[in-house]
Amino acid sequence: MSYAIEAIGLTHYYAKGTQQQVAAVDHVDLAVERGELVGMIGHTGSGKSTLISHFNGLLKPSEGKVLVDGVDIWRDKETLRQSRFKVGLCFQYPEYQLFEETVYKDIAFGPGNMKLPKEEIDARVRRAAEFVGLTPALLEKSPFDLSGGEKRRAAIAGVMSMEPEVLIFDEPAAGLDPRGRKDLMALIRSYRAETGSTVIIVSHSMEDIASLADRVVVMNHAKIAMQGTVDEVYSQGDALREMGLNVPDITEIFARLHAQGLPVPTNIYTVADGVRALQALGGRWRA
Length: 287
Ligand SMILES: Nc1ncnc2c1ncn2[C@@H]1O[C@H](COP(=O)(O)OP(=O)(O)OP(=O)(O)O)[C@@H](O)[C@H]1O
Ligand SMILES: [Mg+2]
Hints:
40% of the residues lie in helices and 21% in strands. It has 2 domains: 34-60 and 70-244, P-loop containing nucleotide triphosphate hydrolases (Rossmann fold, 3-Layer(aba) Sandwich); 248-287, no CATH class. By secondary structure, it is of the alpha/beta class. The mean pLDDT is 94. The chain is globular, with a radius of gyration of 20 Å. α3 packs across α4 and α3 (103-113) runs parallel beside α6. The chain has helices spanning 48-52, 77-86, 103-113, 118-132, 136-139, 148-160, 178-195, 206-212, 230-234, 237-242, 249-259, 271-281; strands at residues 5-14, 22-32, 37-42, 63-68, 71-72, 87-90, 166-170, 198-202, 215-220, 223-228. It binds adenosine-5'-triphosphate and magnesium ion (MG).
């Protein structure tokens, strides 16, 4: 059985052949299982966006390969075209790419490219809109008349409506307030639970990744520096700090409480984990 996505020796040079040539992704091997939710972290400039932009053929590898369902997406034109539908990429600030007259047309754009029958497109638009919490009335509005949060959700619905096997988010919560961030993470979690899709999410928020990911991949200087479960990766606090990453504040707090002699675990990576750990201490700590 093939992987949902596989990168083999994947290398990408920007400004190839010039003095400025940099390997933004340097011989990366990565295999993503079907249905897996992979969280990707790494300091700014470590190559995360460059790496994921290869997964639907938006960028072409300088060296190495990308396989989707076991097939090299650059094998021929049709395979490349299909990979754009199989792997949906949701960029950072996706709302900047809304351009149609109505929200409906924007969400219908991807399925339209797939040459699906009209009724199927309509069903998908309505399903995706409902999923992200946009009311039918909003569908007839211009995307420019939506609030910031609604625009973001409309843009995400535009990728979901293609019903890709793999959905990739690059910093989906960037610029949202804490409430919006939490809602969006919950939405991604239920999307994955409902569809069983493979999801890759890039985020600077170590806490968001801890709350979602089955596996964490850490990028550092164009390479994968570390990967494993949340526990395996987040317990390497010193190594992460050396890569310019910080474990969540809640993890630090629990490490200190533990050091002070409070009988709490140290593998606490989200506030929800923390609440559960304090509740386990007894009635006085009940939230
Ligand atoms: N279009 C481009 N042309 C030249 N160099 C680029 C281009 N895009 C990115 N780079 C460089 O490639 C490297 C990796 O960038 P990339 O955007 O993939 O990192 P990132 O991990 O996504 O960073 P961030 O967390 O800031 O989004 C950086 O050194 C960056 O300056
Ligand atoms: Mg990036």
